[in-house]
Structures are given as C-alpha cells and as structure tokens.
Amino acid sequence: MQLSILGLGLMAITSLSLATPAAAQTSNVINIKFSHVAAIDTPKGQGAERFKKLAEERTKGRVHVDIYPNSSLFKDKEELEALQMGSVQMLAPSISKFGPFGVKEFEVFDLPFVTPDIASFQRLAHSEFGISMLKKLEPRGVRGLAYWDAGFRVITSNKPLRKLSDFKGMKIRINSSKVNEATMRSIGAVPQTMAFSEVYLGLQTGVVDGADTVMYNALTQKFYEVQKHISLVHHSHQGYIVVVNRKFWDGLPKDIRETLESAMADATTHANALSVAEERNAIDKIKASGKTTIDELTVAERDEIKKAMMSVHREMEGRLGRENIQAMYKAIGFVPPK
After folding, report:
1. Does 236 fall in a domain?
2. Rounded to the nearest 5 degrees, what angle is found at the Cα of 174, between the Cα atoms of 171 and 176?
3. Which domain holds residue 236?
4. C-alpha distances in Å from residue 173, one per residue of 157, 210, 212
5. 269 to each of 7, 44, 48, 147, 155, how far by Cα in Å?
6. Neighbours of 12 (CB within 10 A)
7. Biggest CA-to-CA distance, the chain
8. pTM of the full predicted structure?
9. Is residue 338 in some structural domain?
10. Judging by beta carbons within 10 Å of its beta carbon (0-12, 13-18, 19+), is residue 2 exposed, middle or buried?
11. Are 224 and 286 in contact (CB under 8 A)?
12. In a domain, 60, yes or no
C-alpha cells in the first residue's frame, strides 16, 4: 500500500513531534517545530530565527524552537494539514493559502492596488479588521499570532511586461487564491498554481512563463537566473500569517504562552522592518548580476494595468462578501477609483 508524501513525512517525524503539552512535559522542555518555505536570509526566514532566539532566551531554555526553512519539512501544499494534525506547531504561510484552507474571506488581502505602500499594509494588518480576521482561523484548530509583510508583488518573465497587451497568454505562477487567479485573468494572463519549491524548475523548463512573487524570493530562490525580466508591477503586497496549532498553544502554561507572545511581537517588528531594505537590496543584487533586467513601469503603464485589475474588486464581491470588502476599505481609508 502506497503512502502519501504527507503520510511519509508524518511517519518520519512522529518520534520527534511534541504536539501536546503532556508530551512536552516528559522532558520538561517544550519543543516547537517552526516550518516555512522561504530561505533563511529572507525577512520571513530572519523573523523565524529572531523568534527562536528570543523564545529560548526569555523562557530560559524551557522552550526549544527548531526552524525548518526552504520546505525542508513540509511543502506549502502539505503544511497546514500537518499543523492541524500537530505534526508541526508553527508555520508562516502566505495569506493567500487560507482561502483554499476554507477561510475564503482572507483573499480580500489579495485584492489589487489596495495598499500602495508597506505602511498601509501594516496598518491594515494591525487594524480591528485585521485582528478580527485572525479569529476566523480558530474553528479550524489554528490560532493566528501575527502578520508578516513580504513586500510588493512583482512579475518575472522572459520578455518585458510593461503594457497590458504584454501579459496576454502568459502562464504566470501564483499563490493559490481565487482573487489572484482573477487578477491574472483581468490582464489576459493564464494563472498557474504550483508548490513554491517547484517554481524554479517550472520557470527553467518553461512549464510556466513567469511568476507572481516578491523581489527577495526572486533573489534567494534564484528565479533571476532563469528569467530575463522582472516587472515592478507592485499590484499588491504579499503577506504571511504566523499561525500555531491551537490545541498546542492553549495547552501551554500561561507564563510560557505570554512569554512566547512577547517574543513573537518583537520578531514581527524585526521581520517587518526588513521588508523595505531587503526589497531594495534584492533589486540591487539582481541588477548587479547582469542576468535580469528590472523593468520599472511608468505612471501611465501602471495606471493601464491598475484599471484592468480593479474589475477584480467587483467580481469578487460574491465570493468575499461586499461587507467584508467594504470593511477592509474602511480600515485603511481606501477609496476605489470610479
């Protein structure tokens, strides 16, 4: 009988997993497995490392955090299921992942051209609206701890993508989200979903023509080695939510939980502060490589794309709820163009 990839992964770590406080008490050390798909030297990777350092220091060794970057423990299609089962305690998936997870309202964060800068994204994340959204995860056994910003989305390709007509027929890899799918279709592209760990090979072999991503992923995952252009469309922000297995979290001693919450708050500040600098750093390093051209759109070129993408806001009212969309607008003072 064949086992699924997830099944094999679960068997491989069963002996190490401490999914419940009762198991943790056996050694008097609480182990937290923190899995994510990004490289260590990204803001997400550095945020996870900062959380590990602070958590272990502030609990004086009562908590031990193991970080598993680069999909080394679970791929992004498997990790939320593993979290629910208690095989991993903490993740930082992209916000887009929570739509397919069954909380489609989260896809409101993917609506294009809502947050014009990182400050506006962080304002949205810390608003009453953003906090109320995290509570929607709890019935699924997941607790949301923090939003981490990943910066503006860009689109890689092997040709310049500046005008609306340039996108027609392009197969673009996206994070799985109905909003992201609709956004690509609105500009004539063909959305494709695939595991993040498979994107480099997909670009290299031509399975996809480009990727909707962020600059430091284009750098650390080496997309720039197999793509000749990166278009700074900046149509939306990519964000992550740090989530934890709810049963595990609620079962922790109160003092430990409060200490970890403090460590997560400081790790969040650290990760978010890196976003702006790391985006600029990634652009500079990719330019210096000479392998990829960075295409900065003019105001007129971006306005043409924005006009096409804004149709997605109306299209998604049935899926996301008009009231939900309006609540997000209100949280950051966004007024959609007419």
Report:
1. yes
2. 125
3. 5-332
4. 10, 6, 6
5. 36, 11, 12, 10, 27
6. 11
7. 63
8. 0.84
9. no
10. exposed
11. yes
12. yes
The two tokens of residue 258 are 């409060």
Task: Give the CATH number for residue 271.
Answer: 3.40.190.170
Classify 63 as helix, strand or coil.
Answer: strand
Q: How many structural domains are present in the chain? A: 1
Asked whether residue 192 is domain-assigned, the answer is yes
**DSSP state, 38?**
S
Distance of CA 310 to the CA centre of its chain: 22
CA atoms within 13 A on the CB side of 235: 29
Name the one residue in this structure whose structure tokens are 């969309």.
Answer: 325
Of the candidates 180, 34, 173, 172, the one whose C-alpha atom is nearest the C-alpha of residue 95 is 180
Please write the tens of the pLDDT for every residue from 67-76: 999 988 987 7
Q: Give 134's contacts (C-beta < 8 A, 6+ positions apart).
A: 143, 144, 145, 241
Distance, CA of 130 to CA of 152 (rounded, Å): 19
Write out pLDDT tens, residues 139-175. Answer: 999 999 999 998 899 999 999 999 999 999 999 999 8
Contact 236, 113 (CB under 8 A): yes
Q: What is the pLDDT of residue 27?
A: 62
